[in-house]
Write a structure and sequence with these properties.
By secondary structure, the chain is α/β, with parallel strands linked by helices. The protein has 19 helices and 15 strands. The strands form three sheets. Strands 6-7-8-9-10-11-12-13 form an eight-stranded parallel barrel. It has a five-stranded mixed sheet with strand order 1-2-4-3-5, with helices on one face. The protein is globular and about 75 Å long. The structure holds beta-D-glucopyranuronic acid (BDP).
C-alpha cells in the first residue's frame, strides 16, 4: 500500500522530458518573481527577487560581521557587505539557516587556459576566456562560482606565456575582471618568470638584478591601474622546463620575494608553487624533491608569499598519501592545490566524484594549517561546462569545501543532486524520484517495508557518487600503485612503459617496480626513505610494512607477491580482487543509472549513460592490461 502511495505521488511529480543540455548547472531555480526584498540593491536582492519562493526577504548590513560571513534568521539575511549578502542569498535559496563563515579567505580556481584557447589538461572544450571568449558565459561562470563561494580565479595556465602580461592581453584581463567583480571574484594571473626578457627585452630575469625588479614593479603598477583589486601572481618556476630563479643560482625565496615586493604596495599576493622536480635534486625519489627543494627557504619568504602545493607528493594520482611538505614548511603560509579536472581519474569520460578524495586529504592536513585553497578548474566551452554532467559535481564540491572543509562528501553530493537532478520537491522537504526496480547502492533489492521508494532513488544515486572514487582507484591503481598511465595523455594503462629518452620519473616501470620478488616502491628507511619526511605518527606508521595502511602499501613498500594481507589472502590475490571489484562497481553504476532512466531528462540521461558504458570498457581495459602484465611476474610460467 505504502509503495503504491509513493508511486502515485512521485509520478505526479515527474517532469516532462524536456531537452536539457546541462548548461544550467546546479542553478536551476524556477523564476517566481514573488519576494519583496528590502535592503541594499545588489546581486543578493536581484537573485532573491527572481527566485525566492517566499513573500519577503530582508537584507541587513552589519559592519561587525566577519568578511563574507552571513546569518540567516527566518527570511532575514545579515552580513558585513553586499558580498556577504550575496553568499547568504545563495544559501537561503539552498534552504540553509543560521550563521556561516568561510574557512579560508582565498578560495581560488586555477585555469590552465592557454592564450590560443586550448586548455592544458582540459577535457571540456576550449577556454571561455581566450580566443573563443564569451562574456555571457563569463557572467554565468561568475554567478555559478559566487553561488558556491569561490572568490578568486587565475585566468591562465601555470605554464604561462610571457604574452599574458602584454598591454593588449592586460586590457582583456581588465574586461574580464569587470564582469567578475560584482560577483566578488578577483582575478589573478600566472606569470612566466622570464617575462622581463621575453617581453621587456632585458638581458636577464635574475631576481637580484635591479633592472629586473624595476621591470616587475612597473608591470605591477600598470596592472593595478587597470584592475585596482587585482589579486596577484601564481608562479611555476624551475619546474618542467619553466624558467625561474634557479637559472641564476638564486633561491625560490629570492625569486618569490622580488615579485612579492612588486605587488605589495597594492595588497597583492604571490602564490609560489612547490611542484618542482628534476632540477636541483635530479635522481632523488621524485616524491621527496619538493621538500628537499624548499625546506631551506622556510621562514625566508615575504609575508605576502604563499607556498602552493598539490595534495599529494607526486601528481594528482587517484590516491596518494598527503604531501609531507605540509609538515615541513613550519614558518611559511601554505595553500593546497587540488585538481578538479580529472587528469588522472578518467578525465571527462569517467564518473568520479572527488569530494571523498579531498576529504581524505583534510583528514591529514587539517584545514587550519592552510591559508587558502586552489582547485585546477575543469571548465570549458562545452555546453555542460565540464564535459561530463557529473563532473559538475566536482566544481560544486570544490567550492563548498573551500567554504567549509568540514562538510561531508555526502552532504555535498545530496545538495548537488537535489539542485541538479531533483526537480521534485516533496511536501515534506524530501526530493527524489521513484522506480520500483531500483536497488540500493549495495545491489540488494530494497525492502518495501522500511523505505519509501523515493528515498531509494535518492540513495542509489548518492551511493553511486560516493563509491565512484574508490571504484576508480580499484580499477586503475589499487593498494598504493601510482602513475602507471599511458605516456603524455594520462588516460588508460601502460604498466610496461619505459622510454630511455624520457625522464625516469615519467616511466610507469619506475613507479610500480614489479619484478619476480614482488611489486611496489620501497620508500621506507631501507629504500628511498621518503617516509622520513613525514611527521609522527605517520613516519613510523608508513615506514613499517606491518603498520602501513593497505591503501598506501605499494606506495611505500616493495612487497612479495605471496605476502599475506590482513584478510589472510596473498598480495597477488588481493590485487586481482581489487581490480575485479572496481570493474564490478562500474557495472553496478550502470544498473543504477538504467533504473533511474524514467526520472531523468532524456539528454542528460543518454549522455551520462554513453559515458558510463565507455567507463566500463576503460575499467576492463585497466584490469586486463595491468593484471596480464603483473601476472608475468606473479605467476611466471
Ligand atoms: C601535471 C600535468 C601538467 C602540468 C603540471 C603542473 O600533467 O600538464 O603542467 O602537472 O601542475 O599534472 O605544473
Amino acid at each position: 500500500m505504502k509503495r503504491i502511495a509513493c508511486f502515485v505521488v512521485a509520478v505526479a511529480c515527474v517532469i516532462s522530458a524536456m531537452a536539457e543540455d546541462g548548461s544550467r548547472l546546479w542553478l536551476r531555480y524556477d523564476k517566481v518573481e514573488k519576494a519583496v526584498v528590502t535592503g541594499p540593491e545588489c546581486i543578493a536582492a536581484e537573485e532573491l527577487r527572481n527566485f525566492y519562493p517566499g513573500e519577503r526577504v530582508n537584507l541587513v548590513v552589519d559592519a561587525t560581521m566577519a568578511a563574507d560571513a552571513y546569518r540567516i534568521e527566518g527570511t532575514t539575511i545579515t552580513a558585513r557587505d553586499e558580498r556577504g549578502l550575496m553568499y547568504g542569498a545563495y544559501a537561503l535559496l539552498r534552504g540553509e539557516t543560521g550563521y556561516s563563515a568561510p574557512q579560508w579567505s582565498l578560495r581560488i580556481l586555477n585555469h590552465w587556459d592557454n592564450l590560443d584557447g586550448s586548455i592544458e589538461r582540459g577535457y571540456a572544450g576550449n577556454s571561455i576566456f581566450w580566443e573563443g571568449r564569451n562574456d555571457t558565459l563569463i557572467k554565468e561562470y561568475a554567478r555559478a562560482n559566487a553561488s558556491i563561494g569561490i572568490n578568486g580565479t587565475v585566468l591562465n595556465n601555470v605554464n604561462a606565456s610571457p604574452k599574458m602580461l602584454s598591454a593588449s592581453y592586460l586590457q582583456q584581463v581588465k574586461e574580464i575582471a569587470d564582469i567578475l567583480r560584482p560577483y566578488g571574484i578577483r582575478v589573478y594571473l600566472s606569470v612566466n618568470f622570464a617575462s622581463p626578457m621575453a617581453l621587456g627585452g632585458l638581458a636577464t630575469a635574475d631576481p637580484l638584478d635591479k633592472k629586473v625588479a624595476k621591470w616587475w614593479r612597473a608591470k605591477a603598477k600598470e596592472i593595478y591601474k587597470l584592475i585596482p583589486d587585482f589579486g596577484g601572481f601564481l608562479v611555476k618556476a624551475n619546474s618542467e622546463g619553466q624558467p625561474g630563479p634557479g637559472d641564476y643560482h638564486r633561491t625560490h625565496a629570492e625569486g618569490a620575494n622580488m615579485l612579492a615586493d612588486a605587488v605589495k604596495p597594492y595588497g597583492g599576493i604571490i602564490m609560489w608553487r612547490s611542484f618542482v622536480y628534476g632540477a636541483n635534486h635530479k635522481g632523488e625519489d621524485r616524491v621527496k624533491q619538493a621538500v628537499s627543494e624548499f625546506v631551506n627557504d622556510d621562514g625566508k619568504f615575504r609575508d605576502n608569499v604563499i607556498l602552493q602545493s598539490k595534495n599529494g607528493p607526486l601528481d594528482f594520482q587517484p590516491r596518494e598519501p598527503y604531501a609531507p611538505i605540509f609538515d615541513n614548511m613550519k614558518r611559511t603560509p601554505q595553500m593546497a592545490e587540488l585538481q578538479i579536472t580529472q587528469e588522472y581519474l578518467g578525465q571527462s569520460r569517467h564518473l568520479v566524484y572527488l569530494a571523498p578524495m579531498w576529504q581524505e586529504f583534510f583528514g591529514f592536513v587539517k584545514p587550519d594549517r592552510l591559508v587558502g585553497i586552489a582547485g585546477v578548474a575543469n571548465i570549458g566551452l562545452d555546453k555542460n561546462w565540464c564535459g561530463h554532467h557529473f563532473s559538475q559535481a566536482n566544481w560544486y564540491a570544490f567550492g563548498r569545501l573551500a567554504w567549509n572543509p568540514n562538510m561531508t562528501s555526502e552532504e555535498i553530493a545530496k545538495e548537488w543532486l537535489k539542485a541538479t537532478f531533483g526537480q521534485w520537491t516533496m511536501g515534506n522537504g524530501q526530493w527524489g524520484m521513484y522506480n520500483e526496480q531500483l536497488t540500493m547502492g549495495n545491489g540488494q533489492p530494497e525492502n518495501a517495508t522500511n523505505h519509501c521508494p523515493l528515498s531509494i532513488v535518492h540513495s542509489s544515486l548518492l551511493s553511486l557518487m560516493l563509491r565512484s572514487r574508490e571504484a576508480c582507484v580499484d580499477y586503475m591503481m589499487p593498494l598504493g600503485l601510482h602513475h602507471i598511465f599511458k605516456f603524455d595523455h594520462h588516460y588508460g594503462p601502460e604498466p610496461d612503459a619505459f622510454k630511455a629518452d624520457y625522464p625516469l620519473e615519467w616511466c610507469p616501470v619506475y613507479y610500480h617496480q614489479a619484478d619476480s620478488a614482488g611489486i611496489g616502491f620501497n620508500r621506507s628507511h631501507s629504500g628511498t626513505n621518503a617516509t622520513s619526511q613525514y611527521a609522527e605518527p605517520y613516519r613510523s606508521l608508513y615506514d613499517d610494512l606491518r603498520t602501513c595502511p593497505e591503501q598506501y602499501l605499494l606506495w611505500f613498500h616493495h612487497v612479495p607477491w605471496t605476502y599475506r594481507m590482513s584478510n589472510g589472502r596473498t598480495l597477488w590475490e588481493n590485487l586481482q580482487a581489487h581490480y575485479d571489484h572496481g570493474v564490478a562497481e562500474v557495472e553496478d553504476f550502470i544498473r543504477i543509472w538504467q533504473d533511474a532512466k524514467p526520472y531523468i531528462d532524456e539528454q542528460r540521461w543518454q549522455e551520462t549513460n554513453d559515458r558510463l558504458l565507455h567507463q566500463l570498457d576503460n575499467a576492463r581495459e585497466w584490469r586486463h592490461t595491468c593484471l596480464t602484465y603483473f601476472r608475468t611476474f606473479a605467476e611466471p610460467s
